[in-house]
Amino acid sequence: DVQLQASGGGEVQPGGSLRLSCAASGFTFSDFTMSWFRQAPGEKPEWVSSIGRTGGAGIYADSVKGRFTTSRDNAKNTLYLHMDLLKPEDTAIYYCTRHSNFGSRGQGTLVTVSS
After folding, report:
1. So what's the pLDDT on residue 64?
2. Backbone phi, then psi, for 83, in 5-degree steps?
3. Quick one: pLDDT band at residue 83, thresholds 50, 70, 90?
4. Which positions ≥6 away from 43 have C-beta within 8 Å?
C-alpha cells in the first residue's frame, strides 16, 4: 500500500522555524514529483510547493516563497519542508502528496504558529 506519513509539526512562535518530514513507502519514490499542501481549519486545501523527481530547486506558492524550502532524499524515501519566518497564517495541517494530487495525501502534521 502507498503510505505518506508527515511528521515534525508542532507549535512555534511567529518568526520561528520548523522542518517537516514525509516518509514514503509502497511505491518507487524517485519516480514521482512530490508536493506539499496545507489546509487550515475551515479552509480549502492550498498547494504549498512541489519538487521534481531528482530534487533541485522546487516551486512555491507566492504565500511561502522565500520562507519555505522543499527538498528530498531519494535514498531515504523522504520529502522535507523547511519553514522559516513562520507567520500565524501558516497555521494548518500539512500534507505531502504524489505529484500535485491532494487526493493522494496521507496522514498530515499540524503546524500552529502562535504567540
Report:
1. 98
2. -120, 120
3. very high
4. 92
CA-based radius of gyration for the chain: 13
Mean pLDDT, residues 15-43: 97
Contacts of 58 (CB under 8 A, 6+ apart): 49, 50, 51, 52, 69, 70, 71
Express each pLDDT in 40-77 by its tens digit: 999 999 999 999 999 999 999 999 999 999 999 999 99
Beta strand residue intervals within the chain, DSSP E: 3-7, 10-12, 18-25, 34-39, 46-51, 59-60, 68-73, 78-83, 92-98, 109-113
CA dist 76 to 6, 22, 32, 36, 47, Å?
14, 10, 14, 18, 24
Joined together, the cell numbers standing for residue 86 give 513562520
